[in-house]
Specification:
With about 180 residues, the protein is mainly alpha-helical. It has 9 helices and 3 strands; from the N terminus they run H-H-H-E-H-E-H-H-E-H-H-H. The chain has a 3-stranded parallel beta sheet, sandwiched between helices. Helix 2 packs across helix 3 and helix 3 crosses helix 4. The longest helix has 18 residues. About 5% of the residues have low confidence.
């Protein structure tokens, strides 16, 4: 549970003119690019989290490096936890970047799964705040439908062909 004084503090930040204008821009357009300048990393994380909370739209925060992105994602996650009483969406996530061609070729499956999970949540509309280093933001990816189709919902009693499940699992890197 968040203390009332902490909630009031964040509500006051949300009423700042620049942030309020950014929320209006997010609400009135399909896809918006906003640039808030002059913010230190903690203020960036606060602003991104509040923008998501106030607009109900996913927010992508671009950081200059992997290290900066990791720190921003961690800070945004802590703020998100303080503000959300019962989070319905995924907490802020990091979209990792591959450092070089060799690393891409030898990427650990866990790293690939993390990247695909973030892209799937973005495509599915289940992302809150996504923090990405510039290198990750510039990566060419598949269309959103590809990532939406990565997840299957299987309920008790559902029937399906085992071969379809095996093919789907192989398609996302499980062998």
């Amino acid at each position: 549970m968040i203390l009332p004084s902490v909630r009031e503090f964040f509500d006051e930040i949300g009423r700042q003119p620049a942030l309020a204008e950014a929320v209006r821009a997010l609400r009135r357009s399909g896809a918006a690019r906003l640039r808030l300048t002059g913010l230190n990393p903690t203020a960036q994380a606060v602003a991104a989290t509040l923008l998501h909370r106030m607009s109900g739209r996913p927010v992508v925060l671009i950081a200059p490096s992997n290290q900066a992105a990791e720190a921003l994602a961690e800070t945004a996650g802590a703020i998100f936890e303080m503000l959300e009483d019962a989070p319905k969406l995924a907490p802020p996530m990091l979209l990792p970047a591959r450092r070089d061609a060799l690393r891409r070729a030898l990427a650990a499956r866990g790293d690939q799964r993390e990247t695909w999970t973030v892209l799937w949540r973005m495509a599915d509309g289940a992302a809150s705040v996504v923090v990405a280093p510039v290198a990750a933001a510039l990566l060419k990816t598949a269309k959103p439908d590809f990532f939406r189709n990565l997840a299957w919902t299987i309920l008790k009693g559902d029937e399906f062909f085992l071969e379809d499940l095996e093919q789907g699992l192989r398609g996302v890197g499980h062998t």
